[in-house]
C-alpha cells in the first residue's frame, strides 16, 4: 500500500450497518509512500494509522469526476 499527501484513506466498515471512514493523508511517515500515515478526518481530528486489510488508498487521480 502506497500513498502520497492528498490521497484518501478509506477504512471499510467491518460489520453490517457500519459506514466507511474516509480520511485525507496529510503526512507519509514511512519510506517510499509506505505506512504509517498521519491522516485528517472530516471533523478535523488527526491520527497516525498503519492501515490493515480493511483499508484502501484512493489516489487523487482515482477520485470520481463531478459532471
From TrEMBL:
Residues 1-57 form the DUF1918 domain. It comes from the Bacteria. InterPro entries: DUF1918 (IPR015035). This is DUF1918 domain-containing protein. It comes from Streptomyces shenzhenensis.
Amino acid at each position: 500500500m502506497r500513498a502520497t499527501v492528498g490521497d484518501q484513506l478509506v477504512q471499510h466498515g467491518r460489520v453490517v450497518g457500519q459506514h466507511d471512514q474516509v480520511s485525507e493523508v496529510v503526512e507519509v511517515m514511512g519510506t517510499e509512500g509506505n505506512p504509517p500515515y498521519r491522516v485528517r478526518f472530516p471533523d478535523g481530528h488527526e491520527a497516525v494509522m498503519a492501515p490493515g486489510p480493511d483499508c484502501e488508498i484512493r489516489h487523487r487521480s482515482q477520485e470520481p469526476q463531478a459532471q
